[in-house]
Amino acid sequence: MSEHRHDGDLSALAAEWDDLVDRCSTATPFQCHAWLDSWWQSYGRPGRLRLVLVRRNGQLVGAAPLMLRLFPLPRLVPVGAGLSDFGDVLLDDSHAEEVAALLVRALPLHRPWSLLDLREVRPSGAVHRLLAHWPGALRRVPDSLCQHLPGVPVEEILARLPAPSAKRARTKLRRLTAAGVTVRPTPPDEVPGAVADLLRLHELQWLGRGVTPEHLRERFAAHLTRAATAMTATGRAALHRYWLDGELIACHLTVLGSDFTGLYLHGVHPKARERLDISGMLLSECLAHAVRTGRGEVNLLRGREPYKQRWRPEQAHNDRLLIGGRVSVVVYGSAVRLRAAAVRHARSRLPRLVRVRMRLRALLAPR
């Protein structure tokens, strides 16, 4: 067991890190080395890395990539926090319980005020194994809603819908074919240019409608370009471009887990949105990709957007796990719950002010 704090320690682990990812059945693309290392290059703070590793006979069998945050309270959070739809630790399947116990002992949470704030943990996440070995305080808070569909041909998805909805969807899909929309996968050497196109179209798509401010920032573009290029080369991501009459109308980045295709980010030209069923276009390609590659799920990832609801997806909440000393967990956990309640109140009672706030954030976001 060891803890590493040097800023370059994560970069040095590329090969054995991804070897562990492949031996951890609960790992997602957001735990792969390319994603985490790229995130650290864009968002990490010098001196804040807390990388906890467990080895068995020299082989890496457990890892918790963490960083220290100081505001509003000192706490450890996962590397990748904020941009990762799923957060987790890594445990070798062959020694999962043994490694979980060792990883718990190695976590730097020995002081009464210590706190680990793990967000976006899937119900199947490896970190749940650690909880059985944790002797201190724990609080579980609901986190983001994620939605998913089976990885089957689109016609099987349509069969799940009410007859009128299915009929409308089929009509829209036929219009896509009649319009002559073509889709092309992007080879790794073309990914940097395709990511630039994706972000340009994404900004146009959300212009005046409350774009996520971080998606407009240079650090996000740098992170996404690095991560998508490396992940595409290793089969952990795919970037598709859509064309109509020789013009690029959409780009779509998906992340690829061992058992799912995840819809991460897309950009669509506003003119295409007026003419075409964009949701049907993107979902059809993701379903086809899942079928071609034998993945049993298309995950719509975080969010309650209306375009996701029309397909009647299954729903599951991620967990937010607060682990540490009793005082820190109680105090911070209460603050988390109060903030969540305030956000829910604002969204339900003050939707107009929320929309104004989002637009202001978009206008003031640094480029």
CATH topology-level fold name of the largest domain: Aminopeptidase
Provide the low-confidence segments as ranges. none
Pairing-aware structural class of the strands and helices? Answer: alpha+beta
The total of helices stands at 13
Q: Could you report the average pLDDT, rounded to the nearest whole number?
A: 91
Main sheet, how many strands, which sense, barrel?
8 strands, mixed
Count of extended strands? 13
CATH domain class of the largest domain = Alpha Beta
Q: Helical proportion?
A: 40-55%
Tally the structural domains: 2
> How far is it from the N-terminal to the C-terminal residue, by CA?
42 Å
Order of helices and strands: EHHEEEEHEHEHHEHHEEEHHEHEHH
- Name the CATH architecture of the largest domain: 3-Layer(aba) Sandwich
Q: In what range is the share of β-strand residues?
A: 25-35%
- Strand order of the main beta sheet, please? 6-13-7-12-11-10-9-8
Radius of gyration: 21 Å
The CATH H-level superfamily of the largest domain is: Gcn5-related N-acetyltransferase (GNAT)
Coarse shape: globular
Description of the molecule:
The protein folds into two domains: 2-144 and 318-364, Aminopeptidase, CATH 3.40.630; 148-315, Aminopeptidase (3-Layer(aba) Sandwich), CATH 3.40.630. The chain contains 13 helices and 13 strands. The protein has helices at residues 14-22, 33-43, 96-106, 128-131, 154-158, 163-179, 191-205, 218-233, 270-275, 278-293, 306-309, 326-349, 351-364, and strands spanning 2-4, 49-56, 59-69, 75-78, 90-91, 115-121, 137-150, 182-185, 237-244, 247-256, 260-268, 297-302, 314-324. The strands form two sheets. An eight-stranded mixed β-sheet has the order 6-13-7-12-11-10-9-8. Helix 2 (33-43) runs antiparallel to helix 8 (218-233) and helix 7 (191-205) packs across helix 8. The longest helix is centred in the C-terminal third of the chain and has 24 residues, at 326-349. The two termini are 42 Å apart.
